[in-house]
Amino acid sequence: MKKYKCEVCGYIYDPQQGDPDSNVAPGTAFEDLPDDWVCPVCGVGKEEFSPVAE
Amino acid sequence: MNLDALFCLTYGIYVVSSRAGQRLGGLICNTVIQVTAEPPRLAVVMNRRHYTHELAGSAGRVSVAVLSEDAPLKFIGRFGFRSGRDFDKYADIAYGTLPSGCPYPRDFVLAAFDLAVERAVPVASHMLFVCLLEEALILGEGRPMTYAYYREVLRGKTPPTAPSYVSPAGSGKEQPPEGETGR
Q1: What's the pLDDT score for residue B164?
Q2: Structural domain contains residue B171
Q3: Which has the minimum average pLDDT: A29-33, A39-43, B116-120, B141-145?
Q4: Distance from the B133 Cα atom to the nearest Cα atom in chain A, whole angstroms
Q5: Which of A12, A46, B39, B115 has the greatest number of C-beta atoms within 10 Å?
Q6: Chain B residues within 8 A of A42 when measuring between CB atoms
Q7: Domain residues for B14?
Q8: Is B105 part of a structural domain of the chain?
Q9: Given CB atoms, is A52 within the 8 Å cutoff of chain B?
Q10: Is any Cβ of chain A less than 8 angstroms from the Cβ of B82?
Q11: Nearest residue, CB atoms, B78 vs list A8, A39, A41
C-alpha cells in the first residue's frame, strides 16, 4: 500500500500505521479513508495529498 | 489547575514575517497585541526555534499581516507547520514589501504592519518582541480571522511550537527553550 504526503504541511500518511487518533485502523489504504478524513497535522482534506514515490 | 481556562482567552490569526538579506520567512502567529498607543507599539511572541525568529533577530524588523476569515486552511497551512529552513514560504505566492523590506502576503490579508523591534525579551521557549509601529496599511475588506474561527469553523490544528498549544497529556509543563528544529 502506498504512502501519501500532505502537500500543505508535509505529514505522511502511512497505511501500515493508519491514524489511530481519527479512529483509522492500521492497514487502512489511503483510498479507503473516509471522504471527511483530514490531515491530522494541519487539517486539510484528502485532495491535498499526493502519493509518495517509492 | 484547569488548563481549559486558557481556551477562554481570545486571539487573532496573523502571518508574521521577516527578511534578512534575500532570505524571507513567515509563520502563523496568534500572539500579536497592541501594547501602547502613543507611539503605537505592538508585541509579537514566537517560538525561538522558528526560522522567522532567526531572521527577525538579525534584521530587527518584522511585519504582521492580519488574515481575513476567507483565508483557506491550505493558505494558513503553507505558513504554519513547516520550517522556512526547509521550504520557501514566499515562493510562488503574491506578496508585497514594506519599507523595512519585510514581506507580507497579498491574498487573504486585511491589514499589514511594518515593525521595528525595540526590545527582544526571551521568555523560556519563546521570544517577546516589543516593536514600534513604522507603517500600517489597510489592504482589504472583511472580517479578521480569530483563533476561535480557525479552530471551530476551519477545524485548523495547532502545532506543538505554538504558545497556545496544549499537549494531549495536558501537563502544562514548560517547553525547553532549545531543542530539535521546530516545525
Answers
A1: 82
A2: no
A3: A39-43
A4: 31
A5: B115
A6: 73, 77, 80-81, 156-157
A7: 10-165
A8: yes
A9: no
A10: yes
A11: A8
Side-chain-side CA neighbours of B169 within 13 Å: the count stands at 4
Structural domain contains residue B110 = yes
Q: Is A40 on the interface with B (CB under 8 A)?
A: yes
- Please tell me the predicted confidence (pLDDT) of residue B39: 97
Alpha carbon distances (Å) from A22 to A39, A41, B59, B153: 10, 11, 42, 18
**Per the domain annotation, does B86 fall within a domain?**
yes
User: What pLDDT, in 10s, does the model give residues B23-36?
Assistant: 999 999 999 999 99
Portion of chain B with pLDDT greater than 70, in percent = 91
CB contact at 8 A, B138 and B122: no
The CATH number of whichever domain residue B85 belongs to comes to 2.30.110.10
Question: All 3 cell numbers of residue B65?
Answer: 499581516
- Reported pTM: 0.85
**Number of compact structural domains in chain B:** 1
